[in-house]
Amino acid sequence: MTAEEVAEELMVSQSKISRLENGRRSISQRDVRDLCRTYKVEDKALVDSLMQMAKESRQQGWWNAFGDVPYSVYIGFETDAASLRVYEPQVLPGLLQTPEYAEAVISGALPEAPQEQIAQRVQVRLRRQERITDPAAPLRLWAVVDEAAMRRVVGSPKIMSEQLEYLVRMSHEPHVTVQALPFEMGSHPGMSGQFTILEFSDESDTSVVYLEGVTSDLYLEKHTDVQSYSMMYEHLRAQALNVEQSRQFITEMAQEHARRHEQS
């Protein structure tokens, strides 16, 4: 069977099959089960053995040292990616968050989580940020951020002021681009919510669109889906302020939060 035939049989993208075969994507027990059925593997002992190997293989990766990370599949993609295009309507990009802002975001998103779990998630987020500062192969990051994410007081006005100042500093890195999308720009293609487009250096690896959910995440790899989101992103970049205007806009937001902190 060709990769195209397997992909059609399992109703997944051809790029997913290619990544599984080349070891560029972690494989789940469900993937192994489905592939065994497709390949008509009838030896139950062999299938069980392969599924156990898949379970053990997913324990690899630096993030596994932090225990059960719910979005480990995404971290695997992010670790392998050469560049990211991110649109954030509600919070500032995770790869550009300060520790204090990250803790406030995670605490608000998981109000019933114990402090140990929150601390663990913060550490994972900070570990992910090492890709941005990696001198050998820094991750190329382009982020379009809605004004709502800058105005929302996460943690405190002081935390917000320091976070936005940090965002401006990071935007001066040659491989980091940040654009602000003010309210006055009106409606835009990103109003349906956050999304991330991951691109890889290997030409055989097609781009992946990541949509974050509350209980499960969605990964889109079909060419038409990636193309649609890429077109949306081009419109977002066109409607957003340019880089210098964005820095000025974010700086003014930081100053507003700083004044609010002084008055409190």
Automatic annotation (TrEMBL):
Coiled coil: none
InterPro entries, alphabetized: Cro/C1-type_HTH, DUF5753, Lambda_DNA-bd_dom_sf
Pfam family, one: HTH_31
Domain HTH cro/C1-type: 1-46
Name of the protein described by the UniProt record: Helix-turn-helix transcriptional regulator
